[in-house]
């Protein structure tokens, strides 16, 4: 009996928002792993902004772009179903860069084992995975929030943003989240302990910042870019630190990117804007996971996952990353 | 006999490039200084980008804007001609914020004495003044160039830029200047010791950077903004530091400012963009002046001044700040 491996392959490079027609849904016979490789049954696939870069052919990316015909690349967790690598055995839980498919065969050296006793598998794509490492080191190392300072985070209801705000609260800062929609804003203040939330879809962000951050913004952790970044630039405190984590508002631009027109406020306020990339913090991942795992266990930190069930829903789920409809870390459940 | 004090007053706020008609050329009887004040005969007036901010009514400035009818504010040096302040005597050489006029009466507490034995008066508006302090601390503290690194400076033939490049050379960096015009570029490489110069008016800056900075740009000291900043952003080395000192390309914009469209390269290259303001370094001015004075005396540092003679030429001289026709620190000689 041949097992078929269903998968999404890149059919063409998306122009603007990715469409279902940009992908082929295919099925190929499942192979055994060659020497040094491991066959992993994919359990959960993380739906990340980085994927938008992988399917484009820009030369200015952090990662090698995918080729047409490649299985869609994805950060994922799963279980080993066959192993030709000495470090991995059938049944091990693992995390790594796998594919949007039922099974991925991958060099064992590119996988890391995870301990499912510590937390459910989805947590390893969220607080104990890349979003957690990004939030933890991005905020604490690049943002350096001090107790009593005002921290603003955009994309605050997203995976990284919701963790950033909670870590800032744990460190004694006053925290304002910017998100789209009343439900998300309510979640930030009522469930996650943010001091204030600004609904950028309904509110004038500049006016709301004047109200909620009367002494200015000491740290801004930006996942969004565009008009939100420009509004915050006008409310910086002297010596402010802006951490640029991403710019979800800009990734599907067909035309030119929009830069922050108010960037000269960096001069006026002697402020710093620093870009961060999670891979720089990867060697210290265990440090973040240990601290964040403790906060999760004690209930100080709440991690939210928005799980869509079923591999076949990948294209619509990918679109949801950009339409603001998800609440917490967006992921796809491929196997239970 | 009444001495008349000729002066330029702000008649209206310039729209775009400042015009002669934006100023009134007036003469008022010279007064004696009141208690605590000093009467200074203005010798040299510094023509600075900051003046463009002072005559606008933007709320986002470092300084209080001038009111209509005010004497044009200027950083200047001069000699005390009458004193009602215990620290100053007739004949003292002084520096401070004075006016574009023949005599300014100013609180003595706002003046500092300068030693004309150290250097000619114009030097105190250049290497031993604000441009020198800006270049010295902006480059060394915010830019942190290391020996062997590649440093790029825009506005490289200007007051601050020409000092930045020379200081970077003294510190062992490879230095590329960006300036407008073949004469300026020749001056940078042949007189000031820059390793390379890029003429942004004739050359494709991105292509020239690929040639002159094959390993990327470690430090970028930006006085210009606009397209030049965007071009350098695409050539950053990992961990690059961008020092934002100003954006002369943007100050006369009637419409919106243009932000750096390529700012997400800060993420790709884990780079930092930091705004500096000379006033933060003012308490350490003596440190910079001492070191720079030594370099000037030994000939390691060359300071160039572009001196226009005659108070009446202020409006055209102010315009020259923006048309790129000056070579070195632009100033107006009001009295010999």
Written description of the protein model:
2 copies of one chain form a homodimer. Chain A contains 9 helices and 15 strands. Chain A has 2 domains: 4-125 and 305-333, Alpha-Beta Complex (Quinone Oxidoreductase, Chain A, domain 1), CATH 3.90.180.10; 130-279, 3-Layer(aba) Sandwich (Rossmann fold), CATH 3.40.50.720. Chain A is 25% helix and 28% strand. In chain A, strand 11 (217-222), helix 6 (226-233) and strand 12 (236-244) form a beta-alpha-beta unit. In chain A, helix 2 (130-143) packs across helix 3. By secondary structure, chain A is of the alpha/beta class. In chain A, the strands form 3 sheets. In chain A, strands 3, 4, 5, 6, 7, 14 and 15 form a 7-stranded mixed sheet that branches. Chain A is globular. Chain A starts with a strand and ends with a strand. Chain A has helices at residues 50-54, 130-143, 159-170, 182-191, 205-212, 226-233, 265-268, 285-298, 314-323; strands at 4-10, 23-29, 37-46, 73-83, 93-99, 103-107, 112-113, 150-154, 174-179, 196-199, 217-222, 236-244, 272-275, 305-309, 329-333. The interface between A and B is medium-sized, with 34 and 34 residues. Strand 13 of chain A pairs antiparallel with strand 13 of chain B.
Could you outline the blueprint of secondary structure elements for this entry?
Two copies of one chain form a homodimer.
Chain A: E1 4-10, E2 23-29, E3 37-46, H1 50-54, E4 73-83, E5 93-99, E6 103-107, E7 112-113, H2 130-143, E8 150-154, H3 159-170, E9 174-179, H4 182-191, E10 196-199, H5 205-212, E11 217-222, H6 226-233, E12 236-244, H7 265-268, E13 272-275, H8 285-298, E14 305-309, H9 314-323, E15 329-333
Helix pairs in contact in A: 2-3, 2-8
């Amino acid at each position: 009996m041949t097992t078929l491996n269903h998968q999404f392959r890149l059919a063409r490079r998306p122009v603007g928002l990715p469409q279902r027609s940009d992908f082929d849904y295919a099925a190929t016979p499942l192979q055994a792993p060659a020497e040094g490789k491991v066959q992993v049954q994919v359990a959960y696939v993380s739906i990340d902004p980085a994927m938008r870069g992988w399917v484009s052919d820009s030369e200015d990316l952090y990662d090698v772009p995918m080729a047409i015909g490649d299985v869609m690349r994805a950060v994922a967790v799963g279980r080993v179903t066959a192993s030709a690598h000495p470090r991995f055995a059938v049944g091990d839980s693992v995390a790594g860069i796998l594919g949007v498919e039922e099974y991925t065969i991958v060099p064992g050296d590119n996988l890391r084992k995870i301990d499912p006793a510590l937390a459910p598998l989805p947590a390893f794509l969220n607080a104990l995975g890349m979003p957690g490492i990004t939030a933890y080191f991005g905020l604490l190392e690049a943002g350096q929030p001090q107790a009593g300072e005002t921290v603003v985070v955009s994309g605050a209801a997203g995976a990284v943003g919701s963790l950033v705000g909670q870590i800032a609260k744990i460190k004694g800062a006053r925290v304002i989240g910017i998100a789209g929609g009343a439900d998300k804003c309510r979640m930030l203040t009522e469930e996650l302990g943010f001091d204030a939330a600004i609904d950028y879809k309904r509110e004038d962000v500049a006016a709301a910042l004047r109200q909620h951050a009367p002494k200015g913004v000491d740290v801004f952790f930006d996942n969004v870019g565009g008009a939100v970044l420009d509004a915050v630039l006008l409310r910086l405190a002297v010596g402010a630190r802006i951490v640029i984590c991403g710019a979800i508002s800009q990734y599907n631009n067909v035309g030119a990117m929009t830069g922050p027109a108010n960037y000269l406020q960096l001069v006026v306020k002697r402020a710093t804007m620093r870009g961060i990339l999670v891979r720089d913090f990867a060697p210290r991942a265990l440090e973040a996971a240990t601290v964040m795992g403790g906060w999760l266990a004690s209930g100080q930190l709440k991690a939210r996952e928005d799980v869509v069930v079923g591999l076949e829903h990948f294209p619509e789920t990918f679109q949801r990353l950009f339409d603001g409809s998800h609440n917490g870390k967006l992921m796809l459940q491929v196997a239970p």
